[in-house]
Structure formats: C-alpha cells, structure tokens
Amino acid sequence: MMLPERFEECLSFAKRLREEVACSISLQPLYHGFGSPSLKGRFHYDDEQDEIMKSFRGRESEKRLPEPRGYMVAVNQAGEEEKKAVFDLLVEQKTNFTGWQCNAGIENIIVMFSGEIHRAWCMQGGMIGHISDDNLFLPERPMVCQTTICQCGADICSTKIKVDTVQIPIMMV
Ligand code: SF4
To answer: Which residues span the domain enclosing 45?
Structure first.
C-alpha cells in the first residue's frame, strides 16, 4: 500500500522482495479515509509514481500455484471478455460503479470485529445483521451502487452489472 510520503521506501522494499521471492506483488494506491465507509478520493501521486504502480509486477513462480483470489472477467458492450485482477481496476481507476447493480451481500458479506454484518466494506445499505443473531435474513436482491469509489478487493470482486441500455457485467471467475 503506497503511502505517498513513503513511496520510495515501499518501492525499494517491493524490488528487494521480488529478487528474493517468486510471487505476485502489487503496489496499491491509497484513498483518503481508507478503512472507513467514507472514502474521499485518491491520495495524490505524480505521473511517474502512477506509471510505476501500473507497471510493477512480481516474479512468476515456477511452481504450479492456484491463481490468487481477486481475478474476474470483465465483459464489454460488444460481449468481449477480458480477464482482470482487482489490482488492475484499482490502478486504472476503473472502480466507480455508481448506478450499477451490485451483488455484494449476495455473493459475499463482511463481519466486523464488533460482530456487525454488512453487505460490503463500503457499508452501503447499513447493517444487515449481527453475528450473534439467531436468525439471519441476508439479502437476496442486488443493490444499486451509490458510492463513487469501490476500493476494497472483496467489494470489487462481487458481480456488478451496468443497467442502462446495454449490460456490462463484471464477474468473478
Ligand atoms: S460497487 Fe462497491 S462501493 Fe458500490 S455498492 Fe457494490 S461494493 Fe459497495
């Protein structure tokens, strides 16, 4: 996670890590209000930093490892599919799904330390239950996204469908 004032330090560590370990590495941009439901926009990164975050990758492992979580298939208006990682959408700043139908709460939920259950880390829709409830009535219908930044990987992974004239689903694989 690339705190701008420690960008060089994080980058230097990532480079050292890549030399020593064959694994995927992502340099993730951060948002003001990270960890809270009210994100207020991306931290400022200059063009060079932005390019480094977009292009930096880890090192392929020679072992046959299962694919990491966070991959999905994006389907465009022409019906063409493209495999994407959560990280790709984040660095390309393609995580504004305002007005899209979102399956968070149907495909995934989050449980906070307090035991509160929400559909997603964006907290949209409020609390939907508590871990100590005898009966849970979890959502069965998607919600319409009203948040301009979908920032958490788990949130981004739930299926989203653009519902205007043409549907553009993004789906987990
Ligand atoms: S798209 Fe992301 S921000 Fe919007 S409702 Fe779904 S999980 Fe929340």
So the answer is: 4-172
